[in-house]
From TrEMBL:
Species this chain originates from: Sphingobium naphthae
Family: Belongs to the short-chain dehydrogenases/reductases (SDR) family.
InterPro entries the UniProt entry points to: NAD(P)-bd_dom_sf, SDR, SDR_fam
One of the Pfam families matching this protein, by short name: adh_short_C2
Entry protein name: SDR family oxidoreductase
Length: 284
């Protein structure tokens, strides 16, 4: 059976870059009617220029999933123009590190408002339209850290855990309406955050050394790509996945419990590289 999503009405949040952009591109190539949003207006319109020749139709708007009115207005516009919504991909939001020693409750709440409440707001807005047609797919983009806690990442761990719990709950609660909800939990996907992490390393560390360290915990030995994620999203949105709801799927190259070791690995690597650099200065 071939995946056929032609003319499906699809919303992708956080679509201006990285995983969201990759997913939006994949749905556009399938001939979907595509609505994309992100907080940065210039960035989402730049993405739209690439997608316009591919998508069956395209709606592009600035979207802030932390704002009730922004979410309601966006979904209402899509439903009015296309007569409903078939697929929602909840992708907006990013990881955040932090510990008891350096976080405030306000920082945790701000992160939760984007992730937990962002997923909730978007689902609450699209579900009435999906119920009318008795067909819908909600795909929540989450992280492995939400199901396997890792040290030094309180915001991402607890807020992703809540998102995964919400996904499972809705996957059961909405199944009688033929609205299927599932969570895709990301491992090490090669988007811009790894460039930022590399820049945090001490002087003298090559990108090859950094990547080798990072990938020690990934059994497949490579980074994932946005296309790896998009392929699973297309499957879950299709008629090939009519009996899957309330589950979490790790898109991680086998990365699981090893993630708990990574903060220690990174810390020890950074210390060793700093010592190497300091030694080189002494010799010089």
């Amino acid at each position: 059976m071939i995946i056929d999503l032609t003319n499906k009405r699809v919303i992708v949040t956080g679509a201006s870059r990285g995983i969201g952009r990759g997913i939006a591109t994949a749905f556009a190539r399938e001939g979907c009617r595509l609505a994309i949003g992100a907080r940065t207006e210039a960035a989402i319109h730049e993405t739209a220029e690439e997608l316009r020749p591919l998508a069956g139709d395209l709606i592009v708007r600035r979207l802030d999933v932390a704002d009730d009115e922004s979410v309601k207005g966006f979904v209402a516009e899509v439903a009015e123009k296309w007569g409903g919504v078939d697929v929602l991909v909840n992708n907006a939001g990013q990881g955040q590190s932090g510990t008891l020693d350096n976080l405030t409750a306000e920082q945790l709440l701000a992160h939760a408002n984007i992730l937990q409440m962002g997923h909730f707001r978007m689902a609450q807005a699209v579900v009435p339209h999906m119920r009318v047609q008795r067909w819908g797919r909600i795909i929540d983009i989450n992280a492995v850290a939400g199901s396997i806690p890792t040290p030094d990442g309180i915001p991402s761990v607890i807020n992703r855990a809540s998102c995964i719990a919400l996904s499972k709950l809705l996957g059961q609660a909405l199944a009688p309406d033929n609205i299927l909800v599932n969570s895709l939990n990301m491992g090490w996907i090669n988007t811009g955050q790894w460039d930022r992490h590399y820049k945090e390393m001490p002087p003298g560390v090559s990108r090859e050394e950094f990547d080798e360290m990072v990938l020690k915990v990934v059994p497949m030995g490579r980074f994932g790509t946005p296309e790896d994620v998009a392929g699973v999203a297309l499957f879950l949105a299709s008629d090939l996945a009519t009996f899957i709801s309330g589950v979490e799927i790790n898109v991680s190259g086998g990365l699981g419990g090893q993630i708990t070791y990574y903060p220690k690995l990174k810390r020890e690597f950074g210390e060793a590289m700093k010592a190497r650099y300091d030694a080189s200065l002494t010799k010089g």
